[in-house]
């Protein structure tokens, strides 16, 4: 009986010791907001990062404006060449872009010109077709 108790105690102690040696995972540490001492130190760093990013942002804005300007010039050339459907495609792409107020006004004006020209072209074609139809009915004399 003593042997059984001794074995039970040894087993119990071994189990307790092995359980105590296991390391439990500590819950994830919550990130605390920066203290008042840390905040002034990070502000200059943030300002430096903003200053470093500023030229890249300005260059990207100039590139976008330059792209929009070249597309506006292309639309003008297409309108001058009476390629209204192609000009309208370019203008639709432009209207989806973020434009300056001046560029947006130019796009709106060009769209109005293209719509008016397309309507005029359609009316002229319809008139010509009507004349041809009437001329054909009258025996070709006009």
Give unreliable regions as ranges: none
Mean pLDDT, nearest integer?
Answer: 76
Helical stretch tally: 4
**What is the distance, rounded to the nearest whole angstrom, between the alpha carbons of the first and last residues?**
133 Å
Major sheet characteristics: none
Query: What form results from the Cα inertia axes?
Result: elongated
Radius of gyration: 40 Å
Number of strands: 0
Q: Give the strand content.
A: under 5%
Folded structure, characterized:
The longest helix has 43 residues, at 38-80. It is elongated, with a radius of gyration of 40 Å. The protein has a domain at 57-136. The relative contact order is 0.06. The chain has helices spanning 2-21, 38-80, 84-96, 101-137. The N and C termini lie far apart (133 Å). With 142 residues, it is mostly helical. Helix 2 (38-80) runs antiparallel to helix 3 (84-96).
Fill in the keyword field for this structure:
single chain; 142 residues; mainly alpha; 4 helices
Topology diagram in text:
Elements: H1 2-21, H2 38-80, H3 84-96, H4 101-137
Helix pairs in contact: 2-3, 2-4, 3-4
Précis, in short:
The chain has 142 residues and is an all-alpha fold. Helices cover 80% and strands 0% of the residues.
């Amino acid at each position: 009986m003593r042997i059984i108790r001794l074995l039970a105690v040894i087993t119990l102690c071994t189990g307790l010791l092995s359980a105590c040696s296991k390391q439990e995972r500590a819950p994830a540490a919550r990130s605390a907001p920066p203290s008042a001492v840390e905040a002034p130190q990070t502000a200059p760093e943030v300002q430096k990062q903003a200053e470093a990013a500023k030229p890249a942002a300005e260059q990207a804005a100039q590139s976008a404006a330059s792209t929009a300007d070249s597309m506006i010039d292309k639309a003008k050339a297409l309108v001058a060449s009476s390629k209204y459907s192609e000009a309208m495609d370019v203008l639709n792409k432009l209207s989806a872009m973020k434009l300056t107020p001046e560029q947006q006004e130019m796009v709106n004006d060009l769209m109005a010109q293209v719509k008016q020209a397309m309507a005029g072209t359609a009316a002229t074609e319809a008139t010509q077709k009507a004349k041809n139809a009437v001329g054909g009915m009258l025996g070709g004399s006009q």
